[in-house]
Amino acid sequence: MVVIGLVCAVVAALVHCFIFYLESIAWTSPRARTTFGTTEDTAEITRSLAFNQGFYNLFLAIAVFAGVAVFGCCRAVGATLVFTGAGSMLAAALVLLLSDRSKARAATVQGSAPLLAVLFLAIGVAS
User: What does the alpha-carbon distance between residue 13 and residue 65 come to, in Å, rounded to a whole number?
Assistant: First the structure.
């Protein structure tokens, strides 16, 4: 169960790295505008907000990667980092879903892997 949880956590971190890319680097590109449903004008106006938000996603991914990297030698530290990063990703997905039901697909993409990571890792470390 632990391995499955860690793999799901890595998948979640990779998704959040891609979200970082879209928000912080490619925010005004057609791909990002289509993904987030913004217009060219809105993307320009919100560029600095998206840039900042992208880094939040990157930092959560880094926490997960660090947790996975140290899990083998420092199980408690690794699990804490993975639970913190993936749990925050899951919480953000829930906030997105609860704040705007039209974003259910985005919340599912953002929250599925972290949910599985938290569940499988919790089961694995408890046994």
Answer: 7
What average pLDDT does range 6-32 have in this prediction?
A: 97
- pLDDT over threshold 90, residue 54: yes
Q: DSSP letter string over 59-127? A: HHHHHHHHHHHHHTT-HHHHHHHHHHHHHHHHHHHHHHHHH-GGGHHHHHHHHHHHHHHHHHHHHHHH-
Q: Report which DSSP code applies to 46.
A: T
| DSSP tag of 1 | -
Q: Which structure tokens are listed for 5?
A: 């949880």
Spatial CB neighbours of 69, under 8 Å, sequence gap ≥ 6: 78
Q: Is the pTM of this model over 0.85?
A: yes
First to last CA, the chain: 9
pLDDT at 124 over 90: yes
Which amino acid appears at position 55 of this protein?
F
What does the pLDDT average to over 50-78? 97
- 3-class secondary structure, 30: helix
